[in-house]
Amino acid sequence: MKPAINPNKIVVFTGAGISVSSGLEAFRDGGLKAVSQHEQLASPHAWIVRRGEVIDYYNWRRECAGKAQPTPAHLAIARLEQKYEVVVITQNVDDLHERAGSHNVIHLHGELRKVRCCGQHEMISDIGINPQSIGDTCPDGHDMRPHVVWFGEPIMHYEEAGRHFKTAAKVLVIGTSLQVDPAAKLPKKGRYRAEKLIVNPHFDVADRPYSYRIIHEEADRIVPDIVTAWLEGQRWGYGRSRA
Which residues are catalytic? Predict the structure, then answer.
């Protein structure tokens, strides 16, 4: 039996496209050098053979994220908590949702501001925007690594995220192409009777999950409007034609 839908629950699922105006470039949009760095350094193998470069790379990304600011879309999402139970599920590793005021954020790919122990207990520490150094260890003496998901590693909190999709009355997907599994499968868990929207100016309608409405607009322009409508108890854009 499927779990009951909570009429007061909203799930917001975000990707890199929500941060376009934040001053933080997605690593895939930061030029060939950034793409090459990520492909070469975001792996368990690189951690073994190129540890200093891995640490420098994530120190740079942490610094960039610390300078970035929440966008109007981030801020609008936080406003939903005035009326609804909101769960933000993000593929991003920055803390822009938290700094915008969202209180319940699930990071599928980890968090730049955190490091974790390489030992059995994987203790997690929040270092904020401070740099990590080679030789940093946990109290048990194990090395600390960036608390992010690398190539070949499973994403975090997948089952928990799926349960939230299954009980949400509204689902808002922002700034993701839904091309990379397993995260791309999560929106498909949204219920048929839920109001479900995808905001992405470049989204291919052919890839639309069942019963989602596609909004080909920039997040900063349209997400505040959606939030206002929902806070007023309305379905967004009721009566407009579908994409």
Answer: 109
